[in-house]
Predict the 3D structure of the following.
Amino acid sequence: MASKSLIMASLVASAAAFAPVSQTASSTALKAFENEIGAQPPLGFFDPLGLLDDADQERFDRLRYVEVKHGRICMLAIVGHIVTAAGIRCGGDIALGVPFTDMKAGLGFFDTISGGGLAQIIAFIGALELGFGLRQAEIEEACERYQENFPISSVVPFDIDRVSGIELNNGRAAQMGILALMVHEKLDNNPYIINDLLGSPVPFN
């Protein structure tokens, strides 16, 4: 039931993205952020919800930070979904007496995991968030030093703007992709419906 509610909320949020907004406010935001990384063809600057109307650079940077983070999480989620749907599992137990091999793929995971196992995962995610928050400045500084000292290649020059744009687009695609997998799993337990259409169905759970 919880997973169905999550999917419905996601669908509502996605549908809201197509709601009309004030043309005047949108044009103001367009002038301010039209040259930012991620404002790429064919859509260019795209803010249908008007989240950047009258926004300053700090507001934009915060939203961009959240967008990149969610994109990375969803890229990992897509990989995890594909790997577990292929039947690959870790060894050992996810909780006391509950082996990883008993876990279903996708949202079916919530039907098979124990409360202790779920609590363990939530605690692990919390530890990651807390640990990063405590050392965020140090980590970001190390990343900047790495970018500055990235080995120069005459074949594939390192372009941070280009790489950042690719990451943004992949993250955006992954957010839509994992949502589609969840929706099709709850509709008919067939998240990889495209494989069916191509004549190569994927057994799932």
Notes: The two ends are 18 Å apart (CA to CA). Helices lie at 2-16, 23-33, 57-85, 109-112, 115-148, 160-188, 193-197.
